[in-house]
Write the C-alpha cells for this entry.
Amino acid sequence: QVQLVESGGGLVQAGGSLRLSCAASGRTFSSDGMGWFRQAPGKEREFVAAISWSGFGTIYGDSVKGRFTISRDNAKNTVYLQMNSLKPEDTAVYYCAAAPQKTYYAPAYISWGQGTQVTVSS
C-alpha cells in the first residue's frame, strides 16, 4: 500500500493561490491514478480532481474547473494541486488519494493521506 503525505495548505485571502503537494512512498506510485478530495465542516467529502498514471488524463469537479490544476511528477513520487482564484467556499481539509485508475468515485481510492487544511478568508 502506498503512503501519502499532503503539504502546502494554509491561510490565503480570496483571489489568492496555493499549491498543494502529496508525497507518496511505499509501493510503486507511478501506476496509480491519483485524486484530490476535500471536506468542509458539516459537509460531505467532495471530489476535486484526479489524474491518470501517465499524467495526460485529468478530470475535475465542477466547482473547481478552470481554477484548479492537478499534475504529477512520477520521478519525484509527487502529485500537485495548483489552486488559483481561491474563494471562501474552497475552505476545507484537502486529501490526496491513490486508486488503480483516475476516477471521481471516492470508494475506488485505496490509500488516503491525513489531509491538509486550506482556509480562504474573504
User: Anything to note?
Assistant: The mean pLDDT is 94. The two ends are 39 Å apart (CA to CA). The CA atoms of residues 73 and 79 lie 6 Å apart.
